[in-house]
């Protein structure tokens, strides 16, 4: 195997990991976004519906950013931190009553 074949195989693995992070990380981020909207001080159904509708924008933005020329570890870290932050904010809002 020459260098071009090894490079092609390695970049294919990189794209696979990025696609996996984009799909799963984007889904987690969009879901946390919807949970945060559901915890707001509005009718719960309206909040969840608004969160799901705007969650598509979050999902698309996350998928686009996952394929940017940023290190994959940074993408994973930002997705994890943002998801955790949104979920903690939702818990805080729910405990204080919206």
Verbal overview:
This protein is an all-alpha fold and 98 residues long. The protein contains 3 helices and no strands. The protein has helices at 3-38, 44-66, 72-95. The chain crosses the membrane at residues 15-36, 48-67, 73-94.
Largest β sheet strand count, sense and barrel closure: none
* Helix-strand category: mainly alpha
Q: What is the count of structural domains?
A: 1
Shape label: elongated
The number of E-state strands comes to 0
Tally of separate helices: 3
How many whole angstroms does the radius of gyration measure? 17 Å
Properties at a glance:
single chain; about 100 residues; mainly alpha; 3 helices; Iron uptake protein
Please give the structural blueprint:
Layout: H1 3-38, H2 44-66, H3 72-95
Summarize the structure.
This is Iron uptake protein. With 98 residues, the chain is an all-alpha fold.
